[in-house]
Every structure is written in structure tokens, then in C-alpha cells.
Amino acid sequence: MKKPWGRLRLGVVAIIMLLMLAILVSGCSKETLLPKDESYMTQAEEKKVKEAVIDYIQKRYNKNFEVQQIDKDHLFGADYTIRGKIKDGKDTIIYVTGNPPNDFQDTYVPQLWTDELEPRITKYAKETMDFRLMKNIVYGDGTKKTTYTGEIPSVYDVLKNGGDKDFTLTLSIEIYDHHGQSQAEISKFLNELKKMNLNEVIIEIFVYDDKLKTISKKTDTDNYAIYRYNISGDIQKIDINNLDQYKTVIKH
């Protein structure tokens, strides 16, 4: 049976980060990514990349960096993809792509700010809606190279000062219809995001029939999806009390 919603609408950063995670953690061999002659690294080459990326993070953020994995590939328009921990007291896992010594781009600020936002946004979702599942959350600036250096401010301090308009919040949430109250509850949730001074959003909300609460976990949950909301744009300008324009009926 065809899935009722199709592919999730993710922002560019979400796609990049999820693809990196899938490739680097899935256990796929380098040979499955590229022909052997392109993905092969000598020990000297790997050492050079490791030293360069550690130096890059140290100079950019004044933090130590523990390299966990280096892959040589061209999937993201770069020769190397490096996964590792920034020693910032949280051991934030990030990805760095590029070429040594100076052509690097990293996911530190998006990852740091996503980690900060996730608990609060999940809390708002649970308080305002009949919450089922948070499928993903990413707060990032697409493929733009970050301008932040040194000690990164809290995302909440940035939002207090008007936010960063280069950053987009991407969310995918599942909720229950709650006896027909779901749209009003979604409006309440969006209002909480608006009060946070967020700007661009790409939000996908799937609404499920309340009957799913009492059904066996083995059932095909797709059969109980009744609405989908695809909400995108500047949250400060979206008419959060008129959501029919973003609504798709999946099942009557």
C-alpha cells in the first residue's frame, strides 16, 4: 500500500546531516561509496586530514576535537567527510566536510542549536497537542558556511536579539486528532514557536485517528493517518489561525 504522505519535506541541512549520519554510521564500506581507487586513503593522507581538521576546529571555536571517523568521498562536493566530538562539555557530535588545510565546513552551530531547541519544542508540542511522536527536528542554515567563531552563544540569546534569519527550523511531528481539536491545538503550538522569535520554518504535522491509541503496535499506522499539514514560511507572518490552506486530507 502506498504511504499516504510520501517523502518528508526536509530543509537542506536536514538532508545533509541525515545522509551523513546514514552513510557514516550504517556500516557501509568505503568501497560501496566509490570505486576503490577514489576512496582509498594512505595512513599519511589520513593523518594529514586528521591534523588539519583538529587544527581547523581549534582555530575556529577554540575547542579540542576528537576525530572518530574519516571518509574520503565526493558525495557532498568535498573530498573528505569527518565525524567527531567537539570537547565543549557536551561532547557535541558534528560533521566536517572539505579539504585540508583551510577548505572546511562544519555542522557545529546547527547541531549545538538543534540540541538546545529540541527539549523546549518537544515540551511545547506535548503541552499544546495530543502528542504522538517527534520524527525529526533540525535548526540549520542550509549549505551556507557559518560565520560564527569562538564561543558560540546560546540559541536563546540569539533569538532574544531578533534571531538569525539564515537559520530555518525543520520539524516533523505526529499527533492525534483529539476528537477534532487537532487544528486548534496546532495553532497553539505554532503560537509558541512564534513567541520564540523564530523565523523561517518547514513544519510537517501528521494527524492520526484517535483509534490508533488503542490499536496493537504491530498494526500499519498509515491506515490511521487522516490529515497532513505542510506549513512553511516566516512563522511571524503565517496566519496560524487559518491553517486549512496547509492541510491535506489523507483519509475521510
From TrEMBL:
Q: What is this protein called?
A: Lipoprotein
